[in-house]
Fold each of these.
Amino acid sequence: MSSSRSTSGNNKSDASKSVFETVEPIGARVLIRKDEDKKQTKSGIHLPDKVEIPTLTGRVVTISAQVQSDSDYPIDQYDRVLFNPKHAIPVDFEGDNRLFVVPVEDIVAVIRRETSA
């Protein structure tokens, strides 16, 4: 005796699968989330909204495969970097307007903390 079993109630349709979009830089580029512009000086003076100090630093979110495989670029994911914004391409992704695709040549420094022994 053979029995047939309906699986239509057990399988989820393709429409109900979660779809995630990502931004993946191609070529010698990295994705950087720019740090917030400073609204206060180091001495504690609050700046008016129109006089913010522009920030050229940010955290590396994603590295292209080309940069990751090249040992000439000492850049890792989550590194804090100083970059030249001249060739940075803004990416408005899911409401995050601080993302930029930056050519690796425009990263001028990696900012690292050293702990004293």
Amino acid sequence: METLFSDTRVKVIIDGALKFVEKEGSTETCDLIFVGFPGPTDDSLSRLYSKEFYLMLRNILAKDGMAVIQSGGYLTTGQKNHHRYFRSCWIKNPGFLSA
């Protein structure tokens, strides 16, 4: 049985999200991007929860691509800003929250 990881169309990258979008932004586009964030608990994570990050992410996404963002914790002020920035960078945002 073929698995996701053996499919030649799939490229799994485990790296820092910011490092990835800065490096890959000039060389390739992605059909699907999954980003797993820690909760926005301190200033060192603030660049991930920014409009600039989401614009860079959008630039590497294929025209009909999809980005999935996972972040932990409850809806803190930082996460509310995170959702607002994300919405401002995409026309379509069928986002949802789940516990």
Amino acid sequence: MTKIYSRVVLAAMILVLGIGSFFSQVGTEENPPSTTSEPTLRLEDLERMALQNNPTLAQAAAAVRAVERARAALERAKSQPTPDLLLRGAFGYNFEELDALGGPTKLEGSIEVGIRVPLFDRNQGNVATTRADIECAEGEVRRLELALRASLASAFARYTNALAIVQRYQKDILPPAQKAYELYLARFKEMAAAYPQVLIAQRTLFQLRTEYINALVDLRQNAVQIRGLLLVGGLNAPGELRSEGGIEASETPGVKSGMQGAGIREAQEQR
């Protein structure tokens, strides 16, 4: 089962890095692994890029438009209790034969002025509803920004931890194991050491390299997630719209922190 697990890890690493980059970083018995040169990432720069370019915030843009519509509706609701001034005028001839004043037919004009006073209807319900919609839409924008910042901070923390683990393997763990294996092998060739000691040193080196491969996979996964601005869960169902308010969107799903995929976990269980 250990061989199956090692082959699965090897296939995953080659798929992520490519065959040439894989052997240059993992190393062989003749050539030690090379150091990983990951670019320096700053959380502030990543947050700015994510807030500017992440498509998830397109939902926030829709929420902003909902805020503007709600504000316009609020102004309209506030103005509805104010009565309108009604003004009407008329001008024409009076053709009545029996004039009340007994005078001749002549031109006549009239002016009407009126106003409707809402004594009991102040439109309080619509005003309160519109204000609630505004608060809901503004809160949705803030929620999306905070969710993105939280996901980015979590991914950045996993990335820094994975980078520290990889660097530790490169500087403190693999070189002594490689040197010990070479020393035992040289002493065995000189007939000064037993072959089981060489096998133990070789097995230890291979186990450490397997762990190093897992650490590299974890590092690359977190780096790709960060560089992709947390673009994960693209096949998930879209969020549902709420009434006038914000958008009920699912939280940005995170990538599981760890080195094993489904096949690797299955191999571990079999082992």
Amino acid sequence: MPTRTVGVVLAPHGRLLLALTFTIEGAGITEHDVIADPARLGRLDLAVLD
């Protein structure tokens, strides 16, 4: 099964403040990260899931 990374962002009033990422392997979360550094937030490739 492929490794996937999903996340949740906190963006009050449209301003990206924080991202929580989760790496999923098989049926479980194997890693998580909290990103608040503006430089790292700016490098994220974000997409809205349907």
